[in-house]
Amino acid sequence: MPAPEDQSTASTASHDATQPTAEETTSRPGAAVDSVAADVAEPDGTPAGAAGDLPAGPKRVAVIVAHPDDAEFLCAGTVARWASEGNDVSYVLLTSGDKGSSDPAVTPEQLVATREAEQRTACDVLGVGALVFLRRSDATLVPDLDLRRDIVRVIRQLRPDVVICQDPTVRWVDQSYLNHPDHRAAGEATLDAVYPAARDRMTFPELLAEGLEPHKVREVYLGGAKEPDVWVDITETIEAKLASLRAHASQMGDWDPEEMVRGWARDEAARNPAGGEYAESYKYFKLD
Ligand SMILES: [Zn+2]
Q: Which GO terms describe its molecular function (predicted)?
């Protein structure tokens, strides 16, 4: 089904994610953050450039994922590119990865401090502004109403035009990878927060009592999607992606992610109708 058209225009004002003005919190439907990617998502038969005619930004983008380093694997090239193009990118980490070590000398508290610092370094490499930690327990994330409410709260605070999150339908990949349950839970809770809870006035009235008005997210990109339908060219930002991954030193150890990550990005570029040497892929939604 074609994405809806409209006549809105993008704001060219810069903004602070923590202090949006009333004008900036007004939804701007149709203002695709990445018009080339949105064009790719148009079904056959749509006039060429239909989505490309939409204003391209600047937009507020929120990346909402389960663990430190998830976003770097999923979408760091896209994040670096969109940030460099003037979009305001924030990260929301649902856990701080407090189970992500087999070292018996490391406590969960120490690991949280290490991994949050690594995530901040990665964000600095990519040009990400706000970094929010919800500090849910790693490895036991459940997409319940409490988690949904917490994500709605942060969506209403950050007021993103665009959300990038994980694909909750990916249970496994090939015969070698069982998707982490936290990744599925994060995707499920985030999609349920985007629609309908963040936009509906009477859902979670306690948030309204906190002064948090409803907010409509206009675009959703599912990273690591089972059935991707858009590709973002990251040829210019693959180095930033690699640098951001290396910032997660506690997880990389002696392993250098370069060969594997370049291989994945080349494979995605080969599927990208717009070409390019490296790409990241997504399942794309443009919401009314
Ligand atoms: Zn993860």
A: hydrolase activity, acting on carbon-nitrogen (but not peptide) bonds, in linear amides
User: Could you give the C-alpha distances from 236 to 190, 239, 278, in angstroms and in order?
Assistant: 29, 8, 8
Lookup: tokens for 51: 């989505």
Residue linked to tokens 């508290």: 109
**Per-residue model confidence as pLDDT tens digits over 87-105:** 999 999 999 999 989 999 9
As residues whose CB is below 5 A from the ion ligand 1, the structure lists: 67, 70
Closest to 236 (Cα-Cα) out of 278, 174, 187, 181: 278
Compute, in angstroms, the gap from residue 85 CA to the centroid of ligand 1: 27
Ligand 1 centre and the CA of 210: distance in Å?
Answer: 31
Q: How close is the Cα of 268 to the center of ligand 1, in Å?
A: 20
Helix (H), strand (E) at residue 177: strand 177-178
- Contact (Cβ atoms closer than 8 angstroms) between residue 75 and residue 223: yes
pTM as predicted: 0.85
180 C-alpha to center of ligand 1: Å?
A: 7
Give the model confidence (pLDDT) of 188-227 as tens digits: 999 999 999 999 999 999 999 999 999 999 999 999 998 9
Q: Name the CATH superfamily housing domain 35-286.
A: LmbE-like (3.40.50.10320)
- Say if residue 50's pLDDT is above 80: no
The pLDDT score that the predictor gives to residue 288 is 82
Q: How far is the CA of 74 from the centre of ligand 1 (A)?
A: 10
The pLDDT confidence band at residue 44, using thresholds 50, 70 and 90, is: low
